[in-house]
Amino acid sequence: MRLASFIPLVFALAVPTVAFVPTQQRRIHASHLQSTAVDYITSVEEALTETDQLQEWTDACQALVDGTELSLEQIQDAYASALGWKSWAMTKSKIARRYIKPKAPSKEDMAQSIAWLQSGPLQLDASQLGESILSNPTAYLLSPDESYQSAMKVAPKKYRDEEAFLGFLQQYPAALGNYYNCVDDGCNSECGNCWVAFMNRCKNDASHELW
Questions:
Q1: What is the rounded (10 degree) CA torsion for 135, 138, 139, 144?
Q2: CB 195 within 8 A of CB 183
Q3: Which terminus of the chain has a smaller tally of CB atoms within 10 A, N or C?
Q4: d(CA 33, CA 28)
Q5: How far apart are CA 44 and CA 158, in angstroms?
Q6: Is the dihedral of CA 110, 193, 76, 48 positive or negative?
Q7: Measured distance CA(211)–CA(195) in Å, rounded
Q8: 30 phi and psi angles, rounded to 5 deg
Q9: What's the CA gap between 197 and 181, in Å, rounded?
Q10: What is the DSSP string of 77-88?
């Protein structure tokens, strides 16, 4: 083979082709990814069965399904994350699992949380409730009333007024989990729940001065 004809052939083999993926196929792929993401739930439910907590888990998840527009899979994933069962199930080491202490599911606590989120100061409808839960499962599913008070208490000063705080939560619902502010108390390795770190992440989306 002459060099002149060999070079185009090598180039063609080296350059990857980009195939168009039909919309339906993309949806099937996305559905598969969602299914894979909650495969660990089987392990969680087996563990809950061993401790006679499966019915509490099932009832609590169903209450969330009834009160939101989320799927059962989304609810299970969020609730498992909030309780610590997701971390437990995703940890493969049996030794490491001993140090993870997931919380027990409670249909009564869930009913109280949902009632507060719907009729308390947040007044969330089904769509808003679902979006808020996905943004921060722990803050919205485990004692959200306490999360609300804790977050507002240490919020940046311009948001410590309840009206301003509620307005901010409508735009950034995940802020309900911010129970620390290093501006007031200094850094304490609480970046995942710190107002300063949260505000820095929000700055790219903000159309106004956050602080």
A1: 130
A2: yes
A3: N
A4: 9
A5: 42
A6: negative
A7: 10
A8: -65, -40
A9: 9
A10: HHHHHHHTHHHH
48, 105 contact by CB (below 8 A): yes
Closest CA to 144 of 165, 181, 175, 117: 117
What whole-number distance in Å separates Cα of residue 100 and Cα of residue 90? 11
Instruction: Please list the pLDDT of the chain residue by residue as tens digits (211 residues).
Output: 544 444 444 434 343 333 333 434 433 334 443 544 568 999 999 999 999 999 999 999 999 999 999 999 999 999 999 999 999 999 999 899 999 999 999 999 999 999 999 999 999 999 999 999 999 999 999 999 999 999 999 999 999 999 999 999 999 999 999 999 998 889 989 899 999 999 988 876 654 455 5
- The whole-angstrom separation of Cα 80 and Cα 136 is 12
User: What is the rounded CA–CA span in Å between residue 200 and residue 211?
Assistant: 10
